[in-house]
């Protein structure tokens, strides 16, 4: 039997395991949040925190694993390496364990001990570096020296998810709004970490020709807001964001500015107050 055939058999089984995990799982809630009636605004919050891996990056991790499998990048025994601020690594550690693959997360020393504990609980290892801008090169090097695969969420997030539908977050939101008074929202507002969620929602809105605009909120120190405003695809602040999960020191390749209708730079104090 050829080696290629046995590789395919392992990958077939891995895809089945990931899809079976999804089939066993319920969707996340869309909460209706009552506001004063005279505001004339209906607000809904999509709560991505209740996924099985305990991290809101569950959909992204699933998409990245499936993309790596169908590309033939992830095979039996492949060490998975990722640069992360923590949440993606938690979900990826979960899927790596599901497939029996070694997992190494490259993160900054400031990553919360809770996230490190979760990654280790799922059998992953953590490599901690000093600065947020170092994680990319460190992860690429670990992957190269271990013969592993660098997932590279900050490049592949926007293309690993099917923007037409296929159970992506935008389709989930629109299905859950279907019986509301206004099933097509005026605005969808989202933060950006990789930019994958905003890319998926923006493309979905255009593909389905919904009259919904997309707004992206960005914290202080992040390169996304100034990069989007100025049109500079290589804008960099070199500064870490204080708000977990969103805001990046550089314009990430997976951030797609052209699908965004409006951006708002939110003071960090306001972000913390809202939480
Ligand atoms: C990752 C993240 C986002 C945005 O997701 P991306 O698809 O990576 O841009 C938004 N909010 C929080 C809290 C996150 O952790």
Class of the largest domain in CATH? Alpha Beta
CATH topology of the largest domain: Rossmann fold
Enumerate the spans where pLDDT stays under 50 for 5 or more consecutive residues. none
What CATH architecture label of the largest domain applies? 3-Layer(aba) Sandwich
Q: Helix tally?
A: 10
> What is the SS-derived class?
alpha/beta
Our estimate of the beta-strand percent is: 5-15%
In whole angstroms, the N-to-C terminal distance is 56 Å
Q: Helix and strand succession?
A: HEEHEHEHEHEHHEHEHEH
Question: Mean pLDDT across all residues, rounded?
Answer: 95
Question: Quick one: how many beta strands?
Answer: 9
Q: Would you write up a description of this structure?
A:
This protein has helices spanning 3-24, 58-70, 87-99, 113-121, 135-146, 153-160, 169-177, 196-207, 224-230, 268-274, and strands at residues 30-33, 43-46, 80-83, 103-108, 125-129, 149-150, 187-191, 213-218, 262-265. The chain is of the alpha/beta class. It has two domains: 2-21 and 54-151, Rossmann fold (3-Layer(aba) Sandwich); 162-274, Rossmann fold (3-Layer(aba) Sandwich), CATH 3.40.50. It has a four-stranded parallel sheet, sandwiched between helices. Strands 7-8-9 form a three-stranded parallel sheet, covered by helices on one side. The chain has a two-stranded antiparallel sheet with strand order 1-2. β7 (187-191), α8 (196-207) and β8 form a beta-alpha-beta unit. The longest helix is centred in the N-terminal third of the chain and has 22 residues, at 3-24. It is globular, with a radius of gyration of 19 Å. It starts with a helix and ends with a helix. The mean pLDDT is 95. Residues 56-57, 60, 87, 157, 191-198, 245-246 line the site of pyridoxal-5'-phosphate. Pyridoxal-5'-phosphate (PLP) is lined by residues 56-57, 60, 87, 157, 191-198, 245-246.
